[in-house]
Amino acid sequence: MAKPVDPSVIEDLVVANRVLVSEGVLDAFGHVSIRHPGDAERYLLGRNLAPALVTAKDIVEYDLDSNPIDAPPGFAHFHERFIHGEIYRARPDVHSVVHSHSPNIIPFGVTGHPLRALYHMSSFLAPGVPVYEIRDVAGMSNMLISNGPLGKSLAETLGEKDVALMRGHGNVIVARTLPMAVFRAVYTEVNARLQVQATSLGGPINFLAPEEGEKAMQVLENIHVRAWDIWKRAALEQIKG
Amino acid sequence: MAKPVDPSVIEDLVVANRVLVSEGVLDAFGHVSIRHPGDAERYLLGRNLAPALVTAKDIVEYDLDSNPIDAPPGFAHFHERFIHGEIYRARPDVHSVVHSHSPNIIPFGVTGHPLRALYHMSSFLAPGVPVYEIRDVAGMSNMLISNGPLGKSLAETLGEKDVALMRGHGNVIVARTLPMAVFRAVYTEVNARLQVQATSLGGPINFLAPEEGEKAMQVLENIHVRAWDIWKRAALEQIKG
Amino acid sequence: MAKPVDPSVIEDLVVANRVLVSEGVLDAFGHVSIRHPGDAERYLLGRNLAPALVTAKDIVEYDLDSNPIDAPPGFAHFHERFIHGEIYRARPDVHSVVHSHSPNIIPFGVTGHPLRALYHMSSFLAPGVPVYEIRDVAGMSNMLISNGPLGKSLAETLGEKDVALMRGHGNVIVARTLPMAVFRAVYTEVNARLQVQATSLGGPINFLAPEEGEKAMQVLENIHVRAWDIWKRAALEQIKG
Amino acid sequence: MAKPVDPSVIEDLVVANRVLVSEGVLDAFGHVSIRHPGDAERYLLGRNLAPALVTAKDIVEYDLDSNPIDAPPGFAHFHERFIHGEIYRARPDVHSVVHSHSPNIIPFGVTGHPLRALYHMSSFLAPGVPVYEIRDVAGMSNMLISNGPLGKSLAETLGEKDVALMRGHGNVIVARTLPMAVFRAVYTEVNARLQVQATSLGGPINFLAPEEGEKAMQVLENIHVRAWDIWKRAALEQIKG
Questions:
Q1: Per the confidence metrics, is the pTM higher than 0.95?
Q2: Interchain pair C194, B107: CB under 8 A
Q3: What angle do CA B130, C227, D198 make, to 5 degrees?
C-alpha cells in the first residue's frame, strides 16, 4: 500500500518538473524522481505525462522493480521508469534521479569526446562521465531502458558517478537530494554548451583537476540551494499564476 | 465543390501553424498542410499568409494540381503549394506536409555534410536525408517550387523518405499524421543544431544504426502525441488568450 | 523649414525601431532612417536615443549634410548620422538605411571570411558584401563615422551593394523601402549565424549563384511585406501596450 | 558605524543586480558592488542572496577587509566578498566591481586562447585580459576567493586592467562607475560569444588595435549611459511589477 508523504515533498517534486522544463533540460520528455522519504525501497515519479503538466495528483509510488503501488487504474507509466528503480537499488546514497534528453549534452554521448568539468559550477563532472552504450547490452534496440535488466546495466555504467551519458539517447543524473539533482542537471547542460565552444577555440583545455573538483563540490553542497530557491519561487508563481 | 471537414481537424491545422512558429521552425514564411480527410485527392492549406496569423477561415482546399477549390475571390495562394500537391500525389501514405526554412537545417543543404540521426528523437532521419538540387532541374532559378513539374521533381527526390533538404532554400517534412509531421519538423531542427556541435568536437560521430532508427521510430509512433498535446495546449491558450 | 510628413510614415519608422530591437539587430545602439518622402534632399531619423524608446516626437529631419532641421533645442543627434546623409546623397535609389552592431555579423567584418548568401531569404547578399576598413581612411580612429568625409568613404565602399560590413564596428544595410531595409537587416543576421555553422561543418559551401541571387531577390520584392506585416502588428501591440 | 547613502544610489545597485540577470551575466550566483560614495574605505554589496532577489534592505556596507558594518545578525555574507574589498584597496580609481560566471566567457579562461576586443563596444578589452590561475597561489583549491590574500592575488593579476578572467571559475570586471561596470560585463559576454564564432571561421582575426581601443573607449564613456537608461527602465518596471 502506498505510504503517506508530506505534501511539501510532493510539491518540491512537482516544482522540479517545472524548473527542469524552464531551464531547457526537459521538453515534453524526460522525468525526475525522488526516493520515498519513508521507505528506501520505494520511489516517487510522475505518471506518463509531459513534465510541464505534472501536478501532485500525478505522482505515483513505485517499488524498486518499478511496479506502481496503488496507482489509479487509468494511469499510464513511463516505459523507462526502470532507470529510476535500478539506480535506487544499486545506489543507496542516491535520493533523486533525473533522466533527460538535455540537448547540448547529446553531442558528447555520440562522439569519443568526454564531457569534463570546465568550472566549479560543474565540478561534480570532475570524477569523469561514463557513456552507456546500449548496443553492448541489447544489440540493435529501440534505445529505451524499458525493463529491469537494461536499467541494471545502466546503473552499472553509472557506478559511483553522478552523471552518465546514454549514447544516442540522453543522460541520467543523480544526487543525494532533489535540489542537487536539479542543480546538476542544469549545470551539466551549461558545461556541455561551453565545452563545445572551448573546443572550437582549439588547443588543450585546462579542466578542473580531480582535487579541485572534489573541493569545489563541497562548495556546491552549501550554495546549490540558492539556485533551487529562486527556481522554486519562479515555478510556484507560474503554477499559482 | 469544397467538401465539409470536421472543425476539430481545421483547429488542429491552425494549431500546427502556431506550434511551428513557437518552436522556431516557421517564421513569417513556410507552410503546413494536411490531406483532406474526406477526399484523398484534395489537401488543406492556409491561404498566402504568415503562419502566425492563420485562422480557421484562412484554410483553403486544393486539388492535387494545387488549384484552389471554392476559395474566396480575394484570397492569394502560396506560390509553392505545388510542394504539397505533388507530394500527396506521389505518396499515398502521406497525410501531412511541412515546408519550412527552419534555420539550423539550412547549413546541411548547402554543404556536402549529410544530416543524420544523432539520437532516438530524430530516428526518422536514420534512413537518410536526400538533398534536392533545383539547379539540376531548373538551371538558374529563383529557388521556388512554383509549378507542378518542380513539385514533382522534389517529390521524386524525397522518394520514400520523411525529410528532404532543399539546397539554398529549406526543407520538406512529411508524415502519416499532422502531429507527427510537426514532431519531425521540431526534432529535425534540434538534430541539426546538435549535429553541428558534435561535428565541432571532432572525430567520428556514432549515429543511430539503421536498425536502431527503425526500432526507435516505432517508439516515436507512441510517444509523439505527448509533445503534440502540450504544444497544442500552449497554442490554444495563445489563440484564445 | 521641416516639411510635413504623413503620420503613417512616421509611425512606420517608429515601428521599424521596435522591430529591429525585437529581432536582435539593434540593442541600445544603432539607428534606422528613411529618406524624406517629400524632399529627396532630406532624411528622417530619431534623435540620439535608444531605439526601443523612439516615438513619433523623437523623429528629426536632417539635410544631406546631416544638419538637423528645426529640431527642438534640447535634442541631441547621433554622432554617426553622416552614414545616412552620405548614403542618401550617393545612392538616389536608396530610401532607407539601417546602421547596426547586429551581433552575428561582427565576425565577418574582422576575418577575411566573406559573408555570402546561403539561401534565397538572404539573396540580396549574392552580389557580394564589401568590408569597410576605416583604418584605410582615418588611420587609428575611434571607429565612428562621425563626419561627412567618413560617411562619404563608407558610401563609396558600399557602392551599388545593399550591405556593407564595417570592420570592428558593425554594418550598414540599405533598400528602396523601409520594410525591405528591415527585412534585409533581419535576414543578414540570420545568414551570418548559419554561415558560421555551415563553415563548422567543413568542406565547400554551395552559395547562391549570382543569377539565382538575382532571381530570388525578385521574389523577396513580393514577399517581404508578409514579414513586415507581422512584425509591425507585434510592435504596435507592444507600443499600445 | 554604517554611513548614510542616498537612496537613489542604493536603487541603482539593486537595478544593476536585475540588469545583470536579465542580460545573462549573472544567474543565481555572482555579485555586483559599488564603493561607498561617502567613504572610500567602504563598499556596498548585497548580502548572500541570489541577485534576482536583492532589494534595498539587503545591501550591506563592508570595510576593505570585507567585514560587514552594522549588518543585521541574521545576514549571511558572500564567501567571495574579498574580491571586492581587495580590488577597491588596490585600485583607487575603481568604484564598481562585478564578479560573475558569465557563461560565454568561461571557455577563454580555460584555454590559452586570449579574449580580445572584436569591436568598439568591447574596446575596454583592447589593453589585454589577464587570466588568474588560482593554482599558482593556492595549489589545489575549491576555486573560491574566500579570503583576503586570495583577493589580493586576484587584484594583482587584474593590475590596471578592466577585466580579468578566473580559470575554471568566472571573471571580474571593474569600472569607475556602476553603469560602466554593468556595460562592460554585458559586452564582454557578447564579445566572447562572437570571438568563438570568428575563430570558427578560421584565419587571423583583425582585432582592435591598442590605439583604436583607447579612442573607442572614450566614445563608450559618452554613450554607455544610453544602454544603462533602458536597462534601468526595464528593471524598474519589473521590480515595481
A1: yes
A2: yes
A3: 65
